[in-house]
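Intended use. Records like the one below are meant for learning the mapping from a protein sequence to its folded structure. Do not use them to infer anything beyond what is encoded.
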Amino acid sequence: MSFQVHAALTTPFADNGSVDVDALRLHIELLAEDGLDGIVPAGTTGEGPLLEESEVATAVATAVQTAAGRMEVIAHVGRASTPATLRLARASIGSGADALLAITPYYYPYGSEALGSHYRALLEAAEGTPVLAYAFPDRSGNELEAELVDELAGEGLAGLKDSTKSPERHAGYLEVARRHEGFRLFVGSETLTLQSMRAGAAGAISALANARADVLLGVREEESEAAQEAVNRARAELPDIPDIKRAVRARLAERGADYPDAPRAPLGP
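Structure written out for the chain above:
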């Protein structure tokens, strides 16, 4: 399987503060035309922690309906508690999501025993729908050790998104992927895209791909340092969620379509 590029999907909000389903559909159509392999609604870039559970369900259902089999839909269902994560998992499976992604529980510090119990509960609730863990210690406050990932992979964990930004930690996760056939490791740090692809990762889940899918796909096509530098420059120009949403709005405006770019409070006004 070739290196896949997924967009960590942004979430547009209407003037009344609700998820703008029409704008979301237009954006997903654009990403399908860009040639992306998948989308991940309600994750970090989608302002998922600021969404109500019903809004996550809306974003996931809209993604599934609009993608219509053209792109994989990996629903981000991670929440601070296990029960909330399981509720979102069941709703996403009911909507037809292809797979689930869940960040480590956050806010409180957890060790490997607690994190293992959390992911095992999710694997049981998923009833065969692929489950991917999500390591992002800068946001969650919790490290996901490669040893635990290795254990969980042996119990059915289907993959991992690595947003640690650590080449050393990524190398450990790559070793896990090599030991477990079919385990999909996605890099979440765009500056590591080329390195990760060359090392055998399954793909990238990228915030930048919302607006600049071309540069991410360029790394796959060219497999060159020049292509990686193009990614790095584009990311430097669009460093934050508001910047990426403005760039999406500009692209859709070229088609005569409106995409509200304001982040949800308190991230934005």
